[in-house]
Design goal:
The protein is α/β, with parallel strands linked by helices and 482 residues long. It contains 15 helices and 14 strands.
Length: 482
């Protein structure tokens, strides 16, 4: 086999000679050669379009179904953000493109977007500096705890524990352990928040950080939060804010003002960028001034002449935590979303999210148990423990919802609520949609009383029915999608 490659030669003084096409012999061993030509299908454009259109119809998505997911803020993604992110000037850039070229400003616009977004996130959260490099929330968590570890090492502090409430996201203890810390779990009190007395007992000079979600996974804002942050700081511990639930307080409360030192945000949740299917994500991390020097390299800086550049001269930095500068397309959509809503829009989004969640809670507690029945924020946790007595568990109700055209909410989390269903309507859903969901849940609750055995067969309208979910995750068979 003979292939043609373009080669160029370079003289002794660095002078490049013209490119010359030269033949290069490529030998392929017989065992790697085909015995017959590949049987590639020949299909028309309409057939290809129909194939992928039909595949898309098998998916649940927020454009076609209600997503009361809980803890993940699966809000509708404005199409204007998609359109602006696909602009040629952004979409055609490559991270290795030079910042300035022959007096031009090749990547200056992208660097300015990152810089401006960091400034907006600082204002929203009360932090002093941000990095946009983390590629998802869990990645942001790890980055944040690595920053805390670097801070303590630089101070010569001997710290070994991270305190996490029993209602915390599952990634919190995993993150702390990966960063080299031992985790101490603090139980919740009868009000559904971290027990203040238990917390104070666990808080010692060996505690490096306290990881909190506020509001927590029950949708409850901790009324003792300032006491907690003050107590942690007195023993030299830092406060880490899991920003997964920022959608509840966006524009209302700044975590930095509550005493938090490090925060990660889920741009793919809070700021209306795509989140389904495991990505793409973006988990920027913000810090107080005393931790800024540890942020990952590179950092976007603004020069005196008004141009932007990447600064790698950060001797105390934790180093690189991702390729290049983060998930730029997601950042760009979040930037557009924030500019589109503005200050008043962000506040209104939080208010409607809270209103919608409380509306659902009040209506659904007639049919489901609500262990912590008080005003919630963006989400609340119901329980089907009563239905479970009849043999209908949370997973059964979740599967039945699919047949009703509703994406199931998060189930079995937080672990402190048996048969939990975490429900979060977000601010993007209408009252009509919420009322339809209430009627469906009422119907399923009553059906569980009359005919519990029918739940074993749900869902019936999908290409596959009940799966062994552990086996499905480990041994995926996608044949039904072809």
């Amino acid at each position: 086999m003979e292939l043609i490659f373009s080669k160029s030669k370079q003289g002794k003084r660095g002078i490049k000679f013209p490119r010359v096409d030269v033949p290069v012999e490529v030998k392929i061993e017989p065992k790697y050669k085909r015995e017959k030509l590949a049987e590639l299908p020949s299909v028309s454009e309409p057939e290809v379009v129909r194939h992928f259109t039909n595949l898309s119809k098998k998916n649940f998505d927020v454009d076609s179904h209600f997503y009361p997911l809980g803890s993940c803020t699966m809000k509708y993604n404005p199409k204007i953000t998609e359109k602006l992110a696909s602009l040629e000037g952004f979409a055609s850039l490559h991270p290795l493109d030079p910042q300035l070229i022959m007096g031009g400003m090749l990547t200056q616009g992208a660097l300015e977007v990152i810089s401006n977004l960091e400034a907006l996130l600082c204002e929203i959260t009360g932090m002093d500096a941000f990095t946009t490099q983390p590629m998802a929330g869990a990645h942001g968590e790890l980055t944040g705890i690595m920053l805390i570890a670097a801070y303590h090492r630089n101070k010569g502090n001997k710290k070994k524990y991270v305190l996490i409430p029993d209602s915390g996201h599952g990634t919190n203890p995993a993150t702390a352990a990966i960063a080299g810390y031992e985790v101490k779990t603090v139980p919740s009190d009868e009000n559904g928040v971290m027990d203040l007395n238990e917390f104070k007992e666990a808080l010692t000079s060996e505690v490096a950080a306290v990881m909190l979600t506020c509001p927590n996974t029950l949708g409850i804002f901790n009324p003792h939060i300032k006491k907690i942050t003050d107590a942690a700081h007195k023993v030299g511990a830092l406060m880490y804010y899991d920003g997964a639930n920022l959608n509840a307080i966006m524009g209302k409360v700044r975590p930095g003002d509550l005493g938090f030192d490090v925060i990660h945000l889920n741009l793919h949740k809070t700021f209306g960028t795509p989140h389904g299917g495991g990505g793409p994500g973006s988990g920027p991390v913000g810090v107080r001034e005393e931790l800024e020097e540890f942020l990952p390299v590179s950092r976007v800086v603004k020069r005196k002449d008004g141009t932007f550049a990447l600064d790698y001269e950060k001797p105390l930095s934790i180093g690189y935590i991702s390729q290049f500068y983060g998930n730029f397309g997601v950042m760009l959509k979040a930037y557009v979303y924030i500019l589109l809503l503005g200050k008043e829009g962000l506040i209104k989004a939080s208010e409607i999210a809270v209103l919608n969640a409380n509306y659902l809670k009040v209506k659904l507690k007639k049919y489901l148990d609500v262990p912590f029945d008080k005003n919630c924020l963006h989400e609340f946790v119901a329980s089907v423990s009563h239905q479970a007595e009849r043999g209908v568990r949370a997973i059964d109700v979740a599967k039945a919802l699919i047949d009703k055209g509703i994406h199931p909410p998060t189930v079995y989390f937080p672990l402190i609520v048996k048969e939990a269903m975490m429900i979060e309507p977000t601010e993007t859903e209408s009252k009509e949609t919420l009322d339809e969901f209430i009627e469906v849940m009422k119907e399923l609750a009553l059906l569980a009383e009359r005919e519990p055995d029918v739940f074993r067969d749900f869902p019936k309208t999908t290409c596959v029915s009940r799966l062994d979910e552990v086996k499905a995750a480990k041994d995926m068979d996608l044949a039904c999608l072809s």
